[in-house]
Amino acid sequence: MTQPLFTIGYEHATAPAVLDELQRAGVGLLIDVRAVAASRRPGFSKRAFAAALDEHGIGYLHLRGLGTPADGRHAARSGRLDELFRIYEAHLATDKAQRELAELKDLVRSGQRVCLLCYERNPDHCHRRRIAQLVCEALDRPVEHLFASPI
User: Fold this and answer.
1) Which of 120-139 are b and which e, b meaning 16 or more Cβ less than 10 Å from the residue's Cβ?
2) Exposed site from 46, 73, 76, 109, fewest CB < 10 Å?
3) How far apart are CA 25 and CA 18, in angstroms?
4) pLDDT the model gives residue 2
């Protein structure tokens, strides 16, 4: 069976719970697809989370160009998901997003167990669902959405 591309959101979860779920799934590389890899949630800012992942034998890469632009993040916080996804589709057409999408496809092709990370717990409310869809369609792979135990 073809190896899936995983996704996970850390909303309502602790960093240890997310790490446990990533280890359970055998993830070897976590791709952070947040435009801003900072968080008010303890343990989820870029440096702290990358260090914790490293301690668990999981690699970390931040692909900022696949993050949601500020106006899309505002639409998401306001519950305007149709607007979020319209903005994100336009963003995906940018050169930087296309380069990083190609880089992501290469990483998934390499055979590593890759997981996309963003904030939203529900992938239907997050741009990572669209990234996963594009990669999985291009590479004929399944997507598996992981869920860490909630707080």
Assistant:
1) bbebebbbbbbbbeebbeee
2) 109
3) 11
4) 86
pLDDT digits (tens, 9 = 90+) for 77-126: 999 999 999 999 999 999 999 999 999 999 999 999 999 999 999 999 99
Residue 98 sits in a domain of what CATH number? 3.40.1010
Residue 136 lies inside a defined structural domain of this protein: yes
Is residue 151 included in any domain, yes or no?
no
Q: Which residues pair with 7 in a beta bridge?
A: 116, 145
Encode pLDDT of 11-51 as tens digits: 999 999 999 999 999 999 999 999 999 999 999 999 999 99
Of 104, 89, 150, give the one whose Cα is nearest residue 6.
Answer: 104
Range of the domain at 38: 5-146
> What is the predicted pLDDT for the residue at 151?
86
Per the structure block, which two tokens stand in for 38?
């900072």
98, β-bridge pairs: none
CA distance 151 to 149: 7
Token code pair at residue 11: 């909303």
The answer to whether 147 touches 121, Cβ cutoff 8 Å, is yes
CB 60 within 8 A of CB 53: yes
Token pair for residue 99? 């380069």
